[in-house]
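Exercise (ungraded).
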Amino acid sequence: MRVLVTGGRGLIGEATVRELTRRGHEVTSFQRHHADHPDAVRQVLGDVTDPAAVTAAMSGQEAVVHSAAVVDMFGEWDAFERVNVGGTRTVLDAASAAGVERFVLISSPSVAHYGSPLVGADAGDADPSRTRGHYSTSKAMAERLVLSTPAHMSVLALRPHLVWGPGDTQLAGRIIERARSGRLFLIDGGAALIDTLYVDNAATAIAQGVERCHLPQLDHRALVVTNGEPRTVRELMSRMAVAGGAPVPTRSVPFAVARRAGAVAERAWRVSGASGEPPITEFLAEQLATAHWFDQREVRELLDWQPEISLDEGFARLAESCCTAP
Amino acid sequence: MITSLAAQRPPADLPGLDPSWSRLITSADSTGAERTWHMLDSFADRTDTPRVTLLCVHGNPTWSYLWREVLSSAPDDVRVIAVDQLDMGFSERTGVRRTLGDRVEDLDRLTHSLGLTGPVITVAHDWGGPVSMGWVLRNRDLVIGSALMNTALAQPTDDRPPVLISMARLGPLRSLVTERTPIFTTSPSVLAGSKVTADERAAYSAPYATAERRRAVEQFVADIPLEGDHPSGPVLDAIAEGVRTLNTPVLLLWGADDPVFSDRYLRDLEGRLPHAQVHRYDGAGHLTIEEADGIVDDLMLWVDDVAGGNAMVVDDAPVVDASRESLLGPFSLRDNDVPPGTAIVEPDGSGWRRVSWRQLDRVVCQLSSALQAEGVRAGDRVAVLVRPSAELVGLAYALWSLGASIVVVDHTLGVRGMGRALRSADPAYVVTIPRGRVPLKMGRVRARVIAWGDLKKRAKQADCSGWNGAATPDPGAEALVAFTSGATGPAKGVVYTYDRIARTRDLLRDHYDLGSADGLIAAFPPWMLLGPALGLPSILPRMDLGDPGSLTAVALAEAAGELPGTVLWASPAALRGVLSTAESLTSSDRAALSSIRLALGAGAPISRDLLSRLMSLLPRASVRTPYGMTEVLPVAEADATEILTAGRGDGVLVGTPLPGVQVMISAVDHVGNAVGEPTSEKGVLGEVLISATHGKSHYDRRWATERRASRTPGFHRTGDLGHLDSQGRLWIEGRLAHVITTANGPIGPVGIEEAVQELPFVRQAAAVGVGPVGDQQVVVIITSDVLPSGLASLEVIDAVRAVAGIPVAAVLVRRDLPVDIRHRSKIDRTALAAEADRRLRGQG
């Protein structure tokens, strides 16, 4: 199949490009900067908010994996809106115009997480009016957009949950960096049970999604994808810290304090116009203090997929990549 | 001034009430005037013929809203009609004062207008009871069964009317409470406490918003014939007497903690309706259907039985072997035939007191004579709150010699639990030491109290010169009500007949080859009661009988040497006590212990470590672990050597079924329900089913529990979880209620716990599931002497996962685990699971 992957330089995008190529698909990777892909992968440089560039990349494609997005805990709404909502519309429109038959959106479980604990939960419907934080709201709007596509195109929203692995600068990378500098705190002892997904498993799940999203039971569905091995926040952070050769976190702050600190930090960052992200945001505090793990039975059956890499294997690989890297 | 108000439909947004059920029906009332009723009808928009119709009548001051869950839970072919009595609920306010007789007539005319045909099952609560039963007596041809919840058909002659009702009836107060203020109309739902939400409470009050609308409530209260000369008295009497002639099934569903219709009204109804099935709900009050857990399911189960013609009657007249040796053992013999020698040895100061068979026989005779003088007769239930002693054994056999039934409530239930248990068994008499009066008082037990000290004094004066041995009681009669430990739910009364106890005795005697050379060491006091029935001497070791763990190795050796004792029956806690004090044994103590040939550790599983230490402490003893429960004991048995050889498996090896006992498994499905047909296939995880002739007769006043436990014909469903191995041996994996339903299928907790407990830093372990049924994650909770409480460290998690054998999401360390008091080993996994769930949800 000829598949266009947007955001091909991101953690998920890159792994997806690799997996689809391994499976013999003809992959075009679309991203702003040149990526370190195998030679067989055609690379098109451009921005998803640029209709002309997207249309050019879309030509001749049979399927699209749209993973390009602004993934930040913090920032102005405009950026989220422009890239995550506007970009998705642009890619979706271009796909429709080009007669693409399959469209897999990389969404996020946070599109249906409204702050209360999710325990063995189903995916739930995305509702931008109830989401927490700009990122989630923009992704919820994007998902609604995609799932409201008329039946001429098979669409599937996959919501990989907290993807991590070697080369991950978002989750594992930050935790390791903070653990190394002694700035890693737990919230409420880190007891909340959460799901994550090792990056290679995300890639195989997405590849299955591309290959199966035309099936009636998958078409126009939204599925959360996880390793199916929920762990406490404390264990996850500790494992990642250990993989990075850093000490495990031992200090903890109460949830109420963390949330308030997040709110204060966000305001301070905004007022001062400081660059980068604040160390804690309200959303992050909430995420780290609230269980969210999901029922994977139906997902695995529908995708005909099992995560091949266990968390333990994933942590070992993370340690390897981390400590052999220069 | 009496005004009339039209009937109306209830507001559309009352919680749990489907507006499509509401109907307004016009029918002539008892005066012939046309009146409009409001009623709920699950067939409001249907014309097909139901399999059965439930006719539900509410009491005062509720309305048909009471029955909403019956309507929503009824199967499709069961029609539920719930009326609002005239002047009540949303029915017409007629302005006419209605008596009980009027109300029966009103209802009768309504059902004729409705064209109600049979079969009908009536369901009623509170003062709906007399109206409903009055209707039943007029419509016997339609009625196939009647369920009643906390009601009365008569004022029991032995006592005063309900205090709350009497107060509400006092002239001016009546009007104030029932009419001018909404106190009475809101009281039932307020009494129901937290089981009724604020919205539901408001719904109960909805039709009684104004004094005008409450008028009938006052009239209803005024019409309660508590005095002999009340105009409604004769009508009520006729109904109360009339029901004695009913032969259709009756189910009494009773809130045990009703301040209005307390247990004595239940006793009255049981007297009028001896064939009634009874389920008493601990902790439920007057608003039975709101407060009793699972009551609607229970009702529906019974409705299905009745409609199908299968209403189960506890039939306890199975083949009774009349030739079986009397349970009364030597005491049934003529004086001259009573064997010589010692019956019981008990500690006496620093020495021992030996009671011969002849002495004990005399005690039995004297106590039975004194009990008879107190009024105790065959068939009476007599609770015994007396410390274990030779005299207690005498008391037990004295009661059996009279054909009475002994209610045994042990102190491990706690004072509250004892009170509850006693009240549920409703004994006619209680023989008690002074301390026993506390639970009696707390439990508001209405038995006649006989002071143990006084009874003994009077017994001494009895003349037993002409005693020719105790008569043999009817083998099919009730002999014992024992209570489950309450570790796995509220303590349940378990009824044994004389024959069933005798069968248990025979099984023990045959299986353990108990003969005249044996002596019983009763470290588990109930064992002492069986001594005389077996014709064997027994000894009470020197220990605090209230604390099984207080048994020391030296005390055990002393007892073994004194009797001499050959057979030890002890709880795991007592055995732990013995092993932890073994170092203080002298060589002569050790020699005394070598007289023990058989050591039985029963009540709860015993660890392999404990077993091997026990084997070296008791070198000549065969160490065994009989498996069973209050409902049937013993069921299966394993030898310590066999257990040690088998090693660790999925669960605890409890062994091979005893001769005459069949054990089968009913497989659990992915959501944890035991739905499988009984199988003996190896490796199937499911509920343990037992077929045996020596088990309980039935659960006492717990119809639905009994119905479910015996729903597989010929078997008792134990609620235990386990599997059979290739050699037909039973492994217990926990309680059915504790099954962990993972996405990969159901798992029993014990296998994981056994594995984790082998880790050096783990004292005890529990495995529970968190998350939704069918998609649970396993959480292991451990106690440790060396680890801090809270989330386990990575090293500990790794060690637990390495041995657990299945994926474990999280490991928590706790100071200790909640266990039952009786055995100190049954882990309350339900509480642990709830705690783990709370913890792992996050956000405090």
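Further reading is listed at the end of the chapter. For now, observe: Chain A touches chain B at residues 117, 119-120, 188-193, 228-235, 238-239, 242, 248, 254-256, 289-291, 293, 295-297 (CB under 8 Å). The domain at 2-167+197-226+295-307 of chain A is CATH 3.40.50.720 (Rossmann fold).
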